Request: fold
Amino acid sequence: MKYIFLVFFMNLLPQYAGKCLRRDDSYPKTFEDIKNEIAGYTDIAKAIIDLVVHGKAQNRSYERLAAFADTIGPRLSGSKNLDAAIKYMFSALQEDGLENVHLEPVKIPHWERGEEFAMMLEPRNHSIAMLGLGSSVATPPEGITAEVIVVTSFDELHKRAQEAKGKIVVYNEPFVNYGETVRYRSQGAVEAAKVGAVASLIRSIASFSIHSPHTGWQDYEPDVPRIPTACISVEDAEMMSRMSSRGTKIVVHLKMGAKTYPDAPSFNTVAEIVGSKYPEQIVLVSGHLDSWDVGQGAMDDGGGAFISWEALSLIKDLGLRPKRTLRLVLWTAEEQGGIGAKQYYQLHKENISNFDIVMESDEGTFKPSGLGFTGNAKARDIVKEIMTLLQPTNVTDVYDNADGTDIDYWMRDGVPGKRVL
Reply:
């Protein structure tokens, strides 16, 4: 619900937003004027709350998401399921009565994991829970059988470089937070290859595990051999670490049938509510439609995509017409590094002065805890005032930083950004 308020009231921001944004002469000149204008939206805020909590929109975004996830399933970049998801949403946005519904073509990676498994052969037979990482190369058809070296950091790997040659590197890195620890997933194969390893297995980037490996994208580097790489469960990484600390020899057989195909055609999906006074100026809300292939994609990022859609739906249902255009973008190929968003940015950056704020929801749709915001101090003060309208829902906090794969391109150029937390 906090998302819808920010979407509607962000038309108050442009005077103080960022280095690229313009101001119109009629805009309030003092912060007190802005506070008074925000307070004037109290009745609209109440109408939005009533519609979501008590009205026909109650549970609507959940029901829409459930139908979508049940119908389409996982939506890996380049897959037929992702194509079906885009067609589904294009029709749904049209049926919802949103304006300027259209698809913007992009090219995205197409990688498939194929058959894969890992088995510990020494000191005992044990099936290792694993998931290949996106863009990983395959093993030879017969697989790879090699001794394991367990390390807790890149520094330890480099200090033991001579030991790692010809072995499978198992990273048992401690979890600090996602942003810091994820570098082992993205760079683990490259660093292992630099010291002559034949494969890498990375402890899943997770604070909690129930013998559940996590997948994700990883990056190779030019002039570094490409070796197979996968994530394993926290439990298996810890077990091998204990074995190794006792001096036990560990041998693992790894087989991966991953394939990388030429880039595939796809689309970013766009819909709008056109502004009444400044239609050329954009308040952008977004989530991504693609997901990994081993789950529903309901949290990452079906929930974010659907609450972004819901933001426009609620405004339409109430018959509201903001001054500036509200634009919904459902990105494609975010999981592969924001590929769809990058191409959207390249296409639209010549009009960057028209983008007043960019928003993204990609942190999971749990109980709201606040909003992350990136912008100057005056813009932050306005956001804090807007959030006071959410006091009936007890969600009024504004946190530092609105990092997001799909909106970072805009924020680096000075456009204010917001991330739902």
Residues 298-317 form the longest helix (20 residues). The longest strand covers residues 259-273. Confidence is low (pLDDT under 50) at residues 12-25.
